[in-house]
Amino acid sequence: MKNFLSILKRKAVVTTALATTLVAGSLSTQVQAEVDEDTSVWSWEQADKIERTDENTAPQISEEEIKDIAPDLHVWDTWPLRNRDGSVARVNGYKVIFSLTAKKEGVTPSERHGIAKIRYFYSKDGKNWEMGGLAYDPEQALGSRQWAGSAMIDDGKVNLFYTATGRKSNETKTYEQRLAKVSADIETNKDGVELTSNGDHEILLEADGEHYQTLEQSEGKGVIYSFRDPWFFQDPKSGEEYLVFEGNSAGTASEQTCQPANYGSESFQQTHDAPEDAKLYNGAVGIAKKGEDLSDWNLQKPILEADCVNQQLERPHFMVKGNQYYLFTITHKFTFAPQITAPDGLYGFTSDSLHGDYKPLNDSGLVIANPENDPLQAYSWVVLPHGEVSSFVNKYKTEDGEQKFGGTLAPTLKLSVHKDETKIVKESKFPKIK
């Protein structure tokens, strides 16, 4: 089994490290963590249960509900400025959000990813958003374009974690992805908010080929490659701090195979046979632990792998409620392996420990799906601390049946989360950050 063998391989590495450490007369915390923690698996059997229901299907968005917060810009993946503990920050009465943006003029919606930059917006009521500037000097930013991440304020300093995609020096666009950070000063007055980046942009992490697949290991196979979306998380139980991100399970693409653990139970394995291309789907939720400071991060093995199930577990993030950790991620219909039919949506998993045995919410993992008659209307859902869920208007259908790209914030949904079950309980008529 790939997952089993992968665990054995990692255990072997740890055993070697453990032996070396014992000779030195001590046992490091990092080694102990590797010994105790296993990667959870999202299996085909679990994903086979995915279906839309009244409790997980979002209401259809009407054109009257769509408010363009930046008429000259495409706006998509969005995240709020948070405090170190994960609560939504308020800076002298203002809330701040960050979004991927690209100019509309001369740029089609599909081309926007190639010129993406991060811009900020601010609001006093969390409903009506004013456009600020770019979150950094584009000339100083790393990568030929900057993709999604997270933002945390501490001691008046904004720390922006982002994905540096490609390199400015490359003549052609590449899909190399690295996790990066820059800090900024934030100032407010009666007229609004101003962010001024004041630190060096720095690379924090790159795929290592052992825990996470490198671009070279992917061999250009599969539907998409990922090592991106750094999301800062402080564990409320231990106080330790992490970056959670999207990646792909390590290994050379041509050598990967679907193993029994990826199927599910023994009875499911006996009655199901995955197509050959399923082996190329190897999405993972990655994690790195903070060392001495916010520039020092140590890769750990993935929290969750979806080998032979899904290629892309985007923008992973946590909500902690009671004793439970809730891990949320987003994905597309086209990134599921060929034998699985499932919608674009928000998916989730729960465990009673950060590195524990994650089980899919609602048995299958599906938390929010677009309506069947408007399957691309929204995307990039983010679950906020009180269960509100923000997203952006993607390709929605007008009353005439025409498909349009919204490129702005979508109405906020309210999610009820109880043990291992969720349901949509409310929809706002506007994008709201509580």
Describe the structure.
The chain is mainly β. The protein is 11% helix and 41% strand. Strands 2, 3, 4, 5, 6, 7, 8, 9 and 10 form a nine-stranded mixed β-sheet that branches. A five-stranded mixed β-sheet has the order 1-14-13-12-11, with no helix packed on it. A hairpin with a 2-residue loop joins strand 15 and strand 16. Helix 1 packs antiparallel against helix 2. The N terminus is likely disordered.
- Oligomeric state of the chains in view: single chain
Radius of gyration using CA atoms only: 21 Å
Unreliable stretches covering 5 or more consecutive residues: 1-36
Strand count, sense and closure of the main sheet? Answer: 9 strands, mixed
DSSP strand (E) fraction? 35-45%
Number of helices: 6
SSE topology sketch:
Blueprint: H1 2-24, H2 29-36, E1 40-41, H3 44-47, E2 73-83, E3 95-103, E4 117-123, E5 130-134, E6 145-154, E7 157-165, E8 177-189, E9 192-197, E10 202-205, H4 215-218, E11 228-234, E12 241-248, H5 260-263, H6 266-271, E13 282-290, E14 297-307, E15 314-321, E16 324-331, E17 345-351, E18 359-360, E19 366-369, E20 378-383, E21 388-397, E22 403-409, E23 413-418, E24 421-427
Parallel strand pairs: 1-14, 2-6
Antiparallel strand pairs: 2-3, 3-4, 4-5, 6-7, 7-8, 8-9, 8-10, 11-12, 12-13, 13-14, 15-16, 16-17, 17-18, 17-19, 20-21, 21-22, 21-23, 23-24
Helix pairs in contact: 1-2
